[in-house]
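Quick one:
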Amino acid sequence: MAKSFDELKITHPCFGSHGATTGRIHLPVCPGCNIACRFCERSLNDTENRPGVTSCVLTPEQTIPLIKKAVELSPEIRVAGIAGPGDTLASDNAIKTFRLIDKEFPHLIKCMSTNGLLLSERAQEIIDAKIDSLTVTVNAVDPKIEAQLNDYIIWHGEKIEGVKGAEILIKNQLEGIKKIADAGITIKVNTVLVPRINASHIAKIAQTVSEAGAKKYNIIPLIPTAKLKDEAAPTCQEIHEAREAASKYIELFLHCNHCRADAVGVPGRTEFSKQLYAAFALSSNADEVLKENFSHG
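Output:
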C-alpha cells in the first residue's frame, strides 16, 4: 500500500511544506533516455549540482550495499529515489532496483521521476513495484509549445519529431498520471519554466495535471544549457508570477534544490554523495561510457 499524501508531507523532503527535515538517496541506475529535451545536458562528473548529472551509473544490484552505507552516513534518510540520469522507464533498471529495495529496505519510501513517455503503458509495473510517490516532468500540455522544448521522442523504436512527437508524449503523460493517481500513488509534477516559451502556459499545465490527479506542482527555473543555452533564465518576478498562476489549481512545492541524480543526505543541509560514490568514481574511459550509455532510446 503506497504512503498517503498526508504521510508524505511529513516524511518526504519533496512533499513537506516546512522545508526538508528528512534525507534521501538518489540512485543513478538509468543511463538512457527516450526524449531529446532541448534544455537537457546529462553528464558524468562530481562538480555540477543539477539534474541529469551523476558521478557514475550503477546496476540495480550495486544499489543495495550503497544504501546500507548511506544510512550509516546519514541516518535521516527515509527516501530511496531514482531520478536518472536518463529516464527511469526507458530501461528496466529502475523497476528492478525498487523491487530489490522493497525486499531489503521495506521501511524506505520509494520515489521515482520520469518524463512520462512510457508512463501509461508501464503504469501497472510502477504500481506492482510498490512505489510511494511519482514525479512526472510536464513542460506543456499544448503540443505546439512542447515541440519547442524537445526535438524528438524515441517511441517503440521510432524517432518522432516535432508536434507529432509532442502529441504522443503529452497524451501518454496525462493518461499515465491518471492511472497512477487512481491507484493511490501520490504524484508531483515538475515543469521547467522557460519564460519565452511556456511562461503564459503555466496555469493551463497546472490545471490539467491537477484534473488528471497530481497533488503537488514544482516550477523549476531553466538552467540555460544545451540547445537552450542562449535562453534567458527566469527572473524572480517571472517565477513568482508562474507560481501565482499555478497556485489557483494545485498545491505548490517551493524548495527545490536542483538535486543531482546521485544526491545523498538532507536537501540543503548535508550532502554525502562524493563520499558514498567514491568507489564508483569515473574511470579513464569516461568518454566511452558517456557515448554508450547516455544515448536516446
